[in-house]
Design a protein that fits this description.
Number of strands: 11
Largest sheet: 7 strands, mixed
Number of helices: 8
Low-confidence stretches: 236-241
Mean pLDDT: 95
Distance between the termini: 23 Å
Structural class: alpha/beta
CATH superfamily: Spore Coat Polysaccharide Biosynthesis Protein SpsA, Chain A
Bound molecules: cytidine-5'-triphosphate, magnesium ion
CATH architecture: Alpha-Beta Complex
Order of helices and strands: EEEHEHEHEHEEEEHHEHH
Strand content: 15-25%
CATH topology: Spore Coat Polysaccharide Biosynthesis Protein SpsA, Chain A
Strand order of the largest sheet: 5-4-1-6-10-7-11
Length: about 240
Protein backbone atom coordinates (compact mmCIF):
# COMPACT_ATOMS: atom_id res chain seq x y z
CA UNK A 1 0.00 0.00 0.00
CA UNK A 2 1.20 3.50 -0.86
CA UNK A 3 0.87 6.23 1.73
CA UNK A 4 0.83 9.98 1.13
CA UNK A 5 1.48 12.17 4.17
CA UNK A 6 0.42 15.82 3.71
CA UNK A 7 2.85 17.85 5.82
CA UNK A 8 3.01 21.05 3.79
CA UNK A 9 0.88 23.30 5.98
CA UNK A 10 1.89 26.30 8.06
CA UNK A 11 0.08 25.43 11.26
CA UNK A 12 -1.45 28.90 11.58
CA UNK A 13 -3.88 27.88 14.32
CA UNK A 14 -0.97 26.57 16.38
CA UNK A 15 0.65 30.00 16.27
CA UNK A 16 4.19 28.63 16.51
CA UNK A 17 7.26 29.96 14.73
CA UNK A 18 7.36 27.02 12.31
CA UNK A 19 5.23 24.37 10.68
CA UNK A 20 3.44 22.64 13.58
CA UNK A 21 4.43 19.15 12.38
CA UNK A 22 8.03 20.04 13.23
CA UNK A 23 7.16 20.83 16.86
CA UNK A 24 8.13 18.11 19.29
CA UNK A 25 6.21 15.79 21.60
CA UNK A 26 8.46 14.00 24.11
CA UNK A 27 11.55 15.28 22.23
CA UNK A 28 10.41 13.86 18.92
CA UNK A 29 8.92 15.90 16.05
CA UNK A 30 5.21 15.34 15.40
CA UNK A 31 5.89 14.16 11.85
CA UNK A 32 8.39 11.62 13.21
CA UNK A 33 5.69 10.05 15.41
CA UNK A 34 3.46 9.84 12.33
CA UNK A 35 6.22 8.20 10.29
CA UNK A 36 7.01 5.68 13.03
CA UNK A 37 3.38 4.57 13.15
CA UNK A 38 3.30 4.21 9.36
CA UNK A 39 6.57 2.27 9.39
CA UNK A 40 5.23 -0.08 12.06
CA UNK A 41 2.12 -0.83 9.98
CA UNK A 42 2.43 -4.12 8.07
CA UNK A 43 0.67 -2.81 5.00
CA UNK A 44 2.64 0.34 4.13
CA UNK A 45 5.35 -0.27 1.50
CA UNK A 46 6.02 3.26 0.19
CA UNK A 47 5.65 6.73 1.72
CA UNK A 48 5.45 10.11 0.01
CA UNK A 49 5.88 13.07 2.35
CA UNK A 50 4.23 16.15 0.86
CA UNK A 51 6.11 19.16 2.20
CA UNK A 52 7.11 22.75 1.55
CA UNK A 53 10.60 22.90 -0.01
CA UNK A 54 11.74 25.14 2.89
CA UNK A 55 11.02 22.29 5.34
CA UNK A 56 12.86 19.66 3.33
CA UNK A 57 16.30 20.02 4.98
CA UNK A 58 14.91 19.59 8.50
CA UNK A 59 12.69 16.72 7.35
CA UNK A 60 15.73 15.05 5.82
CA UNK A 61 17.48 15.30 9.21
CA UNK A 62 14.47 13.81 10.94
CA UNK A 63 14.44 10.92 8.47
CA UNK A 64 18.16 10.33 8.86
CA UNK A 65 17.63 10.06 12.60
CA UNK A 66 14.76 7.58 12.27
CA UNK A 67 16.49 5.26 9.74
CA UNK A 68 13.23 3.77 8.50
CA UNK A 69 13.10 0.73 6.20
CA UNK A 70 10.19 1.96 4.08
CA UNK A 71 11.18 3.87 0.90
CA UNK A 72 10.33 7.56 1.36
CA UNK A 73 10.21 10.39 -1.20
CA UNK A 74 9.57 14.12 -0.83
CA UNK A 75 6.84 15.69 -2.95
CA UNK A 76 6.38 19.48 -3.10
CA UNK A 77 3.23 20.77 -1.36
CA UNK A 78 0.70 23.29 -2.61
CA UNK A 79 -1.10 26.31 -1.15
CA UNK A 80 -3.94 24.25 0.29
CA UNK A 81 -4.19 20.70 1.59
CA UNK A 82 -6.24 19.87 -1.49
CA UNK A 83 -3.47 21.11 -3.79
CA UNK A 84 -0.88 19.26 -1.72
CA UNK A 85 -2.68 15.93 -2.10
CA UNK A 86 -3.18 16.62 -5.82
CA UNK A 87 0.61 17.05 -6.11
CA UNK A 88 1.03 13.91 -4.03
CA UNK A 89 -1.03 11.90 -6.49
CA UNK A 90 1.28 13.04 -9.29
CA UNK A 91 4.25 11.90 -7.19
CA UNK A 92 3.03 8.31 -6.77
CA UNK A 93 5.03 5.61 -8.53
CA UNK A 94 3.61 4.64 -11.94
CA UNK A 95 1.02 1.91 -11.62
CA UNK A 96 0.06 2.63 -7.98
CA UNK A 97 -3.47 1.25 -7.64
CA UNK A 98 -4.46 2.18 -4.10
CA UNK A 99 -3.37 4.92 -1.75
CA UNK A 100 -3.90 5.94 1.85
CA UNK A 101 -3.68 9.65 2.64
CA UNK A 102 -2.82 10.49 6.24
CA UNK A 103 -2.20 13.93 7.74
CA UNK A 104 1.21 14.40 9.32
CA UNK A 105 -0.62 16.28 12.08
CA UNK A 106 -2.47 13.09 13.14
CA UNK A 107 0.56 11.67 14.85
CA UNK A 108 -1.32 9.37 17.24
CA UNK A 109 -2.90 7.09 14.64
CA UNK A 110 -1.85 3.51 15.44
CA UNK A 111 -0.21 1.05 13.03
CA UNK A 112 -3.34 -1.07 13.42
CA UNK A 113 -5.52 1.74 12.08
CA UNK A 114 -3.34 1.98 8.94
CA UNK A 115 -3.62 -1.78 8.49
CA UNK A 116 -7.38 -1.86 9.00
CA UNK A 117 -7.81 0.91 6.41
CA UNK A 118 -5.50 -0.89 3.97
CA UNK A 119 -7.45 -4.11 4.45
CA UNK A 120 -10.82 -2.36 3.98
CA UNK A 121 -9.55 -0.80 0.76
CA UNK A 122 -9.38 -4.26 -0.80
CA UNK A 123 -13.20 -4.36 -0.80
CA UNK A 124 -14.18 -0.75 -1.54
CA UNK A 125 -12.92 2.13 -3.66
CA UNK A 126 -13.05 4.94 -1.11
CA UNK A 127 -12.96 5.06 2.70
CA UNK A 128 -12.31 7.25 5.68
CA UNK A 129 -11.46 6.54 9.29
CA UNK A 130 -14.12 8.27 11.38
CA UNK A 131 -15.59 8.30 14.88
CA UNK A 132 -19.08 9.13 16.14
CA UNK A 133 -19.43 12.78 17.15
CA UNK A 134 -19.68 13.30 20.92
CA UNK A 135 -20.89 16.92 20.93
CA UNK A 136 -24.25 18.12 19.73
CA UNK A 137 -23.49 20.00 16.51
CA UNK A 138 -25.28 23.21 15.49
CA UNK A 139 -25.55 24.66 12.01
CA UNK A 140 -25.35 28.47 12.26
CA UNK A 141 -25.83 31.37 9.86
CA UNK A 142 -23.49 34.29 9.19
CA UNK A 143 -24.74 36.17 12.27
CA UNK A 144 -24.18 33.16 14.54
CA UNK A 145 -27.87 32.35 14.85
CA UNK A 146 -28.51 28.64 15.17
CA UNK A 147 -30.29 27.34 12.09
CA UNK A 148 -30.50 23.66 12.76
CA UNK A 149 -29.48 20.77 15.02
CA UNK A 150 -28.66 17.72 12.91
CA UNK A 151 -29.42 14.33 14.47
CA UNK A 152 -26.19 13.41 16.26
CA UNK A 153 -26.72 9.71 15.63
CA UNK A 154 -25.95 10.34 11.95
CA UNK A 155 -22.87 12.53 12.51
CA UNK A 156 -19.33 11.15 12.33
CA UNK A 157 -16.09 13.08 12.66
CA UNK A 158 -13.83 12.42 9.68
CA UNK A 159 -10.24 11.50 10.37
CA UNK A 160 -7.38 10.20 8.29
CA UNK A 161 -6.21 7.74 7.00
CA UNK A 162 -8.50 8.08 4.02
CA UNK A 163 -8.06 5.49 1.28
CA UNK A 164 -8.90 5.44 -2.40
CA UNK A 165 -8.38 3.72 -5.71
CA UNK A 166 -5.77 5.95 -7.30
CA UNK A 167 -7.33 6.40 -10.78
CA UNK A 168 -10.67 7.39 -9.21
CA UNK A 169 -9.11 9.83 -6.75
CA UNK A 170 -7.11 11.37 -9.61
CA UNK A 171 -10.32 11.87 -11.60
CA UNK A 172 -12.02 13.47 -8.57
CA UNK A 173 -9.10 15.85 -8.00
CA UNK A 174 -9.05 16.75 -11.73
CA UNK A 175 -12.77 17.53 -11.59
CA UNK A 176 -12.40 19.48 -8.34
CA UNK A 177 -9.67 21.60 -9.91
CA UNK A 178 -11.70 22.23 -13.07
CA UNK A 179 -14.84 23.13 -11.10
CA UNK A 180 -13.04 25.20 -8.45
CA UNK A 181 -14.31 23.04 -5.59
CA UNK A 182 -12.61 23.78 -2.27
CA UNK A 183 -12.72 20.94 0.23
CA UNK A 184 -10.90 20.03 3.41
CA UNK A 185 -10.56 16.30 2.81
CA UNK A 186 -10.26 13.96 -0.15
CA UNK A 187 -13.43 12.06 0.64
CA UNK A 188 -15.40 15.27 0.00
CA UNK A 189 -14.21 15.22 -3.63
CA UNK A 190 -15.25 11.59 -3.92
CA UNK A 191 -18.69 12.46 -2.53
CA UNK A 192 -19.11 15.44 -4.86
CA UNK A 193 -18.41 13.11 -7.77
CA UNK A 194 -21.16 10.77 -6.54
CA UNK A 195 -18.79 8.00 -5.49
CA UNK A 196 -19.36 5.95 -2.32
CA UNK A 197 -17.18 6.46 0.75
CA UNK A 198 -17.07 3.72 3.37
CA UNK A 199 -16.52 4.39 7.08
CA UNK A 200 -13.78 2.48 8.90
CA UNK A 201 -13.95 2.81 12.70
CA UNK A 202 -11.29 5.37 13.63
CA UNK A 203 -9.68 6.01 17.00
CA UNK A 204 -10.76 8.51 19.62
CA UNK A 205 -7.08 9.24 20.30
CA UNK A 206 -6.39 9.94 16.61
CA UNK A 207 -6.66 13.70 17.09
CA UNK A 208 -5.32 16.25 14.65
CA UNK A 209 -2.78 18.39 16.47
CA UNK A 210 -4.17 21.81 15.62
CA UNK A 211 -4.00 24.25 18.57
CA UNK A 212 -1.61 24.44 21.55
CA UNK A 213 -3.91 22.44 23.85
CA UNK A 214 -3.62 19.50 21.44
CA UNK A 215 0.12 19.33 22.17
CA UNK A 216 -0.57 18.73 25.83
CA UNK A 217 -3.28 16.15 25.13
CA UNK A 218 -1.14 14.31 22.56
CA UNK A 219 1.82 14.19 24.91
CA UNK A 220 -0.41 12.80 27.65
CA UNK A 221 -1.63 10.04 25.33
CA UNK A 222 1.94 9.15 24.30
CA UNK A 223 2.95 8.90 27.96
CA UNK A 224 -0.05 6.66 28.59
CA UNK A 225 1.24 4.41 25.82
CA UNK A 226 4.51 4.07 27.71
CA UNK A 227 6.68 6.53 25.83
CA UNK A 228 8.94 8.78 27.85
CA UNK A 229 10.81 11.96 27.20
CA UNK A 230 14.03 10.02 26.83
CA UNK A 231 17.29 11.42 25.52
CA UNK A 232 17.75 11.19 21.72
CA UNK A 233 19.86 8.02 21.91
CA UNK A 234 17.19 5.91 23.60
CA UNK A 235 14.20 7.33 21.74
CA UNK A 236 14.33 4.74 18.97
CA UNK A 237 14.09 1.91 21.44
CA UNK A 238 11.11 3.35 23.27
CA UNK A 239 9.36 4.12 19.99
CA UNK A 240 9.41 0.44 19.04
CA UNK A 241 7.27 -0.57 22.03
N1 LIG B 1 -1.33 20.49 4.70
C1 LIG B 1 -0.62 20.37 3.50
N2 LIG B 1 -0.59 21.41 2.61
C2 LIG B 1 -1.23 22.56 2.88
C3 LIG B 1 -1.98 22.69 4.07
C4 LIG B 1 -2.02 21.62 4.97
O1 LIG B 1 -0.02 19.33 3.25
N3 LIG B 1 -1.13 23.57 2.01
C5 LIG B 1 -1.29 19.39 5.67
C6 LIG B 1 -0.83 19.84 7.05
O2 LIG B 1 0.60 19.85 7.12
C7 LIG B 1 -1.47 18.82 7.97
C8 LIG B 1 -2.71 18.37 7.19
O3 LIG B 1 -2.58 18.89 5.87
O4 LIG B 1 -0.65 17.69 8.21
C9 LIG B 1 -4.00 18.85 7.85
O5 LIG B 1 -4.07 20.26 7.77
P1 LIG B 1 -4.20 21.24 9.02
O6 LIG B 1 -4.37 20.48 10.27
O7 LIG B 1 -5.18 22.29 8.65
O8 LIG B 1 -2.71 21.86 9.08
P2 LIG B 1 -2.25 23.34 8.71
O9 LIG B 1 -2.92 23.78 7.45
O10 LIG B 1 -0.77 23.33 8.75
O11 LIG B 1 -2.79 24.16 9.95
P3 LIG B 1 -3.67 25.51 9.93
O12 LIG B 1 -4.91 25.20 9.12
O13 LIG B 1 -3.95 25.79 11.36
O14 LIG B 1 -2.80 26.56 9.27
MG1 LIG C 1 -5.04 23.96 7.36
Amino acid sequence: MHLLIPAAGMGRRMGADRNKVLLTLLNRPIVAWTLLAAEAAQSIRWIGIICQPADEPVLAEILADLSLQTPIVFIPGGNTRQESVYNGLRGLPAGAQRVLVHDAARCLATPDLFDRCAQALTTCSGLIAAVPVKDTIKVVDSSNQVQETPDRARLWAAQTPQGFEVPLLRQCHDKGWQQGWEVTDDAALFEKCGLPVQIVPGEETNLKVTTPVDLAIAEFILRQRGFTSAPESTQKESAKK
